[in-house]
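Task: sequence design from structure.
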């Protein structure tokens, strides 16, 4: 490991706390022994689920969700997902989020990737799962401040649109890449 690149935290303190994240002020010592103050976001780990359905003719679609995003002040089309609840494993959270946001259960759920959403300023991880052999089994069961609609979109359409409105959420690009690594480019 490049020991000459490692910073050492000296002190951490919480300066702002919300229901979703906490802002931390961190005093750190640089490799050259100088010190600096930095700010990071602490948040719980997340899951993103890539749900795949296959039509009678073999064509594949992803079940996507459309919802308002306050940061972008606009609509975003995304894979379902959310925060891992206390005591939940990433797999349990993926099963729950798929059921709550799409009303489906998966016959097969595979973990495809785990990554840091933005390691420069965030300390959490995002776990990506692929859900296959889906069954419509439940009504949507959304959080009290969650408003979304779920609908199928051909996989190739999602792949072509990713990074352009309404597919604006960067984590969804990473989730799509994880899907492509395991299952190949959607046609």
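Answer:
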């Amino acid at each position: 490991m490049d020991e000459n690149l490692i910073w050492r935290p000296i002190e951490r303190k919480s300066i702002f706390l919300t229901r979703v994240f906490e802002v931390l002020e961190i005093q750190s010592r640089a490799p050259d022994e100088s010190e600096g103050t930095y700010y990071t976001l602490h948040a719980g780990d997340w899951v993103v689920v890539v749900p795949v359905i296959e039509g009678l003719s073999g064509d594949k679609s992803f079940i996507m969700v459309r919802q308002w995003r306050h940061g972008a002040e606009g609509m975003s089309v995304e894979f379902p997902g959310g925060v891992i609840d206390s005591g939940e494993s990433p797999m349990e959270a993926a099963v729950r989020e798929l059921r709550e946001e799409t009303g489906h259960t998966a016959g097969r759920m595979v973990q495809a990737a785990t990554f840091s959403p933005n390691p420069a300023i965030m300390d959490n991880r995002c776990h990506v799962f692929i859900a296959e052999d889906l069954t419509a089994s439940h009504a949507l069961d959304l959080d009290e401040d969650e408003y979304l609609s779920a609908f199928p979109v051909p996989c190739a359409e999602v792949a072509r649109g990713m990074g352009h409105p309404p597919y604006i959420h960067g984590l969804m690009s990473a989730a799509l890449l994880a899907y492509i690594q395991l299952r190949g480019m959607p046609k």
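Helices lie at 90-102, 155-161, 170-183.
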